[in-house]
Each structure stands twice: as structure tokens, then as C-alpha cells.
Amino acid sequence: MAALLDGRKVASIIKDCLKKETALFKEKGLGVPTLVSLCVGEDCGSTLYAKAQAQAALEMGIDYRLIGFEKGISKDSLIAEIKKINNDPSVHGVIIQTPLPLGLKLRDVISFCSPLKDAEGMHPENLGRLVLENDFVVPCTAQACIELLKSYKVKLYGRDVVIVGHSEIIGKPLSLLALKNLATSTVCHIATSQAKKLRDHVKRAEVLIVAVGKPHLIKGAWIKKGAVVVDVGINRLKGKIVGDVEFKTAEKRASLITPVPGGVGPLTVVLLMKNTLELFKRAKGLS
Ligand code: NAD
Fold it and tell me: Which of 51, 83, 91, 231 could be stapled to 245 by a disulfide with Cβ–Cβ 3.0 to 4.6 Å?
């Protein structure tokens, strides 16, 4: 039976470190790291993500400002708001909440955010830095998967890491992070499934990371004996939150597996704060 990759536990350790750092900045009179969250659509403050971010920021001594916009805001107006924030020295990090309403795409607006304020690591320059391995802010969920594995001393070097999902925000940056750790990484996606090859790729994974958004897509019987399984998926099924992996059968074959919830999710929000702190330190010439 697999042991759990406990994201809450790892998140709490990182949280404590960040808390100490922000307290030190305050003590030295360097100011308060500030994260602005831009949210398009109604009732932004009540979304699960915004609530979790506000709470995490509060706990870590980070100033969190949520700015809401009408659902119908034009791309140009949103870009104008982003540019205003670029010029505001009191703001160190920006996150644009997704999903955006139809007609607005993160990739079309994020490039107008200063790469030095891009708390999500989604600016083309920051993604490019990841390719060149001189990154300083990395997309939070992808980073969360690697942090979780590192915390449990899971080696990536030379191992078969199979990633299912190739989104810009998770799968693609994750494949680069796996390569940075010299894993042999394979990225699967919808076409892999359509070509009926998903099961074979999953079966040889020593480390499997799944970020799709389809409940129980990955069958427990496909998991290689002793594999490490990271399930990023968050799906609502019969009133419960479940991942993309069939947990009950997978835990019988894996050596380590993330619970859903309680795996990658709690770390993602903490790493958003870590990115904000990194941007703050850069703005102050501290790193
Ligand atoms: P996305 O829709 O942008 O990408 C989905 C990916 O899955 C694509 O690469 C697509 O090709 C692939 N895919 C779809 N159907 C497939 C199939 N049948 N077989 C193989 N691949 C298939 O999604 P995303 O934004 O990357 O999010 C993925 C999941 O991660 C969602 O459940 C989301 O809620 C969750 N998520 C979790 C966190 C966290 O912190 N835990 C953060 C963000 C997103």
C-alpha cells in the first residue's frame, strides 16, 4: 500500500519559512510584499482560489489586493489596468485569475504584465527562462509537483517521468522542470489517448504526474508496481472532489501517491506567495 505525498504538510513547512522572511523584511523596514489578483467576472472574492490566496497571504504577511472587473471588460481595458500596475512600485506580484470569460485568453494579456511582476511565471520571458534553466519564477502548480517530489526525496535523475496533460500552465512547464532534473520525460495528451497509447505510456512510468481534469481517467491497474503518482486533477464527482487517477486501486500498486484533495493543491497557493516574495526581493535588489 502506498504512503501519501502529503501536500498540506509540505505546504506548512514552506509557509513557515516564508512567514519568517516577510517578518524579517518588515523588521528591516524593507516594506511588505504585495500581490495583486486581477479577477474578471462577478463575485471574484467568493471564488475558492481567491479565498485560499487571501488566507495564505494573510498567514504569510503578504499584502493581498483583489481587483475585480466586469465580465464584459475589453482586452484593451484589461491591458491598460495591467500597465497601471506595472508602474505601481507598491505592487510586487500580479496574478490574473483564470478561467477568463470567453474572448479573453491569459496568453494574450499576460505578455503585457512586467515579467518582474509576473507571480505566476506565465509571461513568455519567464517561460523562456525555464527553457534556458535560469528561471526565478515558475508556474506554481508545475513547481508544486516538483517540490512535493523533492520533499519526499523522490529522485528524477534518469527516471521515466510520464506527464499526462500538456497545458501551458501545468504540463508543458512541468516537462521542462522534469528535464531540468535530468528525468527522461514523456508528455501525453488527448491525442495520446485517441491513438490508444495512453495506457502503455502510463504503464512504464516510474513517476507519473497527471493533470487532465477527467475523473478516474487513469486506471489503478495501469500503475507500475512501486511507481510514484502525483495527481493534479481536481474534479467534482457525486458531490466529492476526486482526482484524475483511480485512487483506491492505484494506491495498492504505487509506493507514493498524492491524496486529492490534500496533495498538489495546498502547495500551489503557497508557491504563488513564494514567487511573490522572490519578485519582492528582486525589486529591492536582494536577489
Ligand atoms: P487543460 O484543460 O488546460 O489541459 C488538459 C490537458 O489534458 C490537455 O493537455 C489535454 O490534451 C489533456 N487531455 C484531455 N483529455 C485527455 C484524455 N482523455 N487523455 C489524455 N489527455 C487528455 O487543464 P489544466 O488547466 O492543465 O488543468 C488540469 C487539471 O488540473 C484540472 O482538473 C484542474 O482543475 C487541475 N488543476 C489543479 C491545480 C492544483 O493546484 N491542484 C491547479 C490548476 C489546475
Answer: 231
Residue 269 beta carbon below 6 angstroms from any ligand 1 atom: no
User: Separation of 144 CA from ligand 1 center, angstroms?
Assistant: 15
Q: For residue range 247-269, what is the model confidence (pLDDT) as tens digits?
A: 999 999 999 999 999 999 999 99
pLDDT digits (tens, 9 = 90+) for 143-154: 999 999 999 999
Look at residue 13 and tell me if it is in a domain: no
What number of helices (H) and strands (E) belong to the chain?
Answer: 11, 11
Residue-number span of the structural domain to which 101 is assigned: 28-117
Q: Helical H runs in the chain? A: 7-27, 48-60, 75-86, 106-109, 124-132, 140-151, 171-180, 190-194, 198-203, 247-250, 265-283
In a domain, residue 6? The reply is no
User: Which atom of ligand 1 is least distant from the CA of 212?
Assistant: 7
Question: Does any ligand 1 atom lie closer than 6 A to the CB of residue 265?
Answer: yes
Does any domain span residue 168?
yes
Q: Which residue has the cell 467534482?
A: 236
Does 192 sit in the ligand 1 pocket, CB within 6 Å? yes
So what's the pLDDT on residue 44?
A: 74
Rounded to the nearest whole angstrom, what is the distance from the C-alpha of residue 233 to the centroid of ligand 1?
A: 6
Query: How far is Cα 212 from Cα 164, in angstroms, rounded to an integer?
Result: 7
47 pLDDT higher than 90: no
